[in-house]
Design a protein that fits this description.
Blueprint lengths: L5 H13 L16 E9 L4 E5 L2 E18 L9 E2 L5 E6 L18 E3 L5 E3 L4 E4 L6 E9 L4 E3 L8 H4 L1 E3 L1 E2 H14 L16
Parallel strand pairs: 1-5, 7-11
Antiparallel strand pairs: 1-3, 2-3, 2-11, 3-9, 4-5, 5-8, 6-10, 7-9, 8-9, 10-12
């Protein structure tokens, strides 16, 4: 469920358009190596998104703001959070296992849902996000719309019908598996906290 109020969207849309990045979705061949960063970041692993008016290749995603360790494929110093002279705070979307729920933050774990190629999804890794001034626990990010390749998301509450009707923030399966393995090792976890919807359980 989108938790932001739509009036806030209109007031900050110009900021998001001005900070659009043209990077294509990652894959095992084109991505640089995974990097462990420690700072404030946007977590979009279950974020609902809305196509950007006037540009069907982009979507606006409603993400959580978190603090701590996360994974990026960009150098950590290039995605550090910053606040400009007008008080507008920018953070970047990176990958974390937090929403799977490992018990450390008291969060109820979400389950991964797989969706087929040809359905719309959004790629948010390394993308810039603007923190909501009225609700600093949330940010709005501008992400790429993709329609190819099998993908997974923590959004949708295991309702596979939403693969076709929603624009969830998601990742290609190969990228998720790489990030999952990287973060599990980086955090020193005995096993990944990732779990899957019943239809996708392995």
């Amino acid at each position: 469920m989108i938790r932001q109020k739509l009036p806030l969207l209109g007031g900050t849309l110009a900021v998001f358009v001005a900070t659009l990045l043209g990077a294509a979705p990652g894959n095992a061949e084109s991505q640089p190596s995974n990097k462990l960063c420690t700072h404030q970041f946007a977590l979009c692993t279950s974020a609902p998104c809305v196509p950007l008016p006037g540009d069907a290749s982009k979507a606006i995603c409603f993400c959580d703001v978190e603090e701590g360790k996360s994974m990026s494929t960009a150098a950590c110093e290039t995605i550090e959070p910053r606040t400009d002279a007008n008080g507008i705070r920018t953070v970047y979307s990176t990958f974390s296992l937090d929403q799977f729920g490992d018990g450390k933050k008291g969060k109820k774990g979400k389950k991964g849902m797989k969706c087929p190629s040809g359905t719309p999804w959004t790629w948010c890794l390394n993308k810039p996000c603007t923190v909501n001034p009225a609700d600093p626990k949330h940010a709005i990010c501008t992400c790429d719309v993709v329609r190819t390749g099998e993908w997974m998301t923590l959004g949708g509450a295991c309702d596979a019908a939403t693969c076709k009707t929603s624009y969830w923030s998601a990742a290609p399966m190969a990228d998720f598996e790489s990030g999952n393995e990287f973060m599990t090792k980086a955090l020193g976890l005995p096993a990944s906290p990732a779990t899957w919807c019943p239809a996708d359980a392995r």
